[in-house]
Amino acid sequence: MEQISFGEEARIEATNEPHLACVLLLDTSGSMAGCIDNLNKAVNDFKLQVCKNEDSKNRVDVAVVEFNSNVQTIQDFVPISELNPVNLVANGYTAMGKGIQTAIKLVKERNQFYNNLGTPCFKPWIFMITDGMPEGEASSEIDIARQMIREEEAKGAHGKLKFFAVAVDNANRDVLMSLTNRVIELREANFDGIFNWLSDSMTVISVSSPDNENKLNPLPNDARKYDPDRDVSDW
User: Fold this and answer.
1) Which 8-state DSSP code applies to residue 124?
2) pLDDT at 226
3) In whole angstroms, what is the distance from residue 30 CA to residue 10 CA?
4) 3-state class (DSSP) for residue 132
5) Which residues, at least 6 apart from 139, have a Cβ–Cβ distance to it below 8 Å?
6) What backbone phi and psi angles, to 5 degrees, belong to 25?
7) How far apart are CA 171 and CA 133, in angstroms?
8) How does the average pLDDT of the chain come out, rounded?
9) Is 179 in contact with 97 (CB distance < 8 Å)?
10) How far is CA 134 from CA 29, 89, 156, in A?
11) Is the dihedral of CA 172, 174, 179, 180 positive or negative?
12) Which of 9, 104, 181, 209 maximizes the CB count within 10 A of its CB?
C-alpha cells in the first residue's frame, strides 16, 4: 500500500481509509524510575500488537509525548508501523499540565491534516500514564489543560476527543478525576495488560466505521476503573 509523505514528519498510509490518531502521553518524572523499563517494553510491544492486523496497521497513527520537568514530543505522528523504539529515562518533576496541552494540540493538528486530505477519521485518543500529580509548573497549567479537555470532549454530539488517565502507584486520583472520568488504576506498575487492552481497542475502532460508537473490551485483571459506577463499554 502506497504511503504519502507531506514534509519530514507528516506521513500517512491509505488516505482513502478512516484513520485513528492516538497520543501516548507518558510521565517520565524521577518517581517513574522503578517502572520505566517496563513502560518502554510495553510501548514497543504495543506497536507490534497493533500491526498484526493489516487494517489497524494502515489506519492507526501514533505520537509519543513525555513530560518530566519539561515536555518533549518524542515521536510526532507517524503510521504505527513507523513508530521508533522508545527508550525513555525517568528524571525531574511532573509538568503534567503542559504535557496535556501539547498532546491536545497534536491531535487537533492531526485531525486538521486528515481534513485537508479528505481522509475520514475517528475520535482521537490521548492515553496518559502517570504516577504522580502536577509538580514543577505553575498551577495555572493544569487548569488550562483541564479546560482544554472539557472543551474538546464537549464538542458536537459525542465530543472530539477521548482522554484517558492511567494511575500508577501514588498517582493523585482526585486530580485525574478532575480531568476526565476515564481514569484507570493499575494494581502495580506492570503495563503489559493495559497496553494489550489499548492495542485491542485501537484495532476494534480502526476496523469499524467512524460513525459507530464502539463498545470497548473489559479491562485486564490488573486494572480497574476508578469510578466503579461506569462500565468501561460506555467509554
Assistant:
1) P
2) 87
3) 32
4) coil
5) none
6) -105, 105
7) 6
8) 92
9) no
10) 10, 18, 29
11) positive
12) 104
Amino acid at site 143: D
- Cα–Cα distances (Å) from 38 to 41, 88, 97, 190, 200, in that order, read 5, 10, 24, 7, 19
C-beta of residue 68 within 8 angstroms of C-beta of residue 91: yes
Q: CA distances (Å), 45 to each of 42, 197, 200, in order?
A: 5, 12, 12
pLDDT of residue 158: 67
Residue that is written with C-alpha cell 520505566 in the block:
36
Cα-based distances in Å from 74 to 23, 29, 68, 128, 211? 11, 15, 12, 14, 31
- Name the amino acid, one letter, at 188: E
Read off the DSSP letter of residue 81: G
Check if the beta carbon of residue 113 is closer than 8 Å to that of residue 106.
no
| Cell numbers given for 96 | 503534567
16-234 fold: Rossmann fold (3.40.50)
The string of pLDDT tens digits covering residues 144-191 is 999 999 999 998 766 789 999 999 999 999 999 999 999 999 988 889
In the numeric block, which cell numbers belong to residue 202?
485501537
176 and 24 Cβ atoms separated by less than 8 Å = no
The full DSSP string for 152-174 is: HHHSTTT-S-EEEEEE-TT--HH
Q: What is the pLDDT of residues 62-71, one digit of tens each?
A: 999 999 999 9
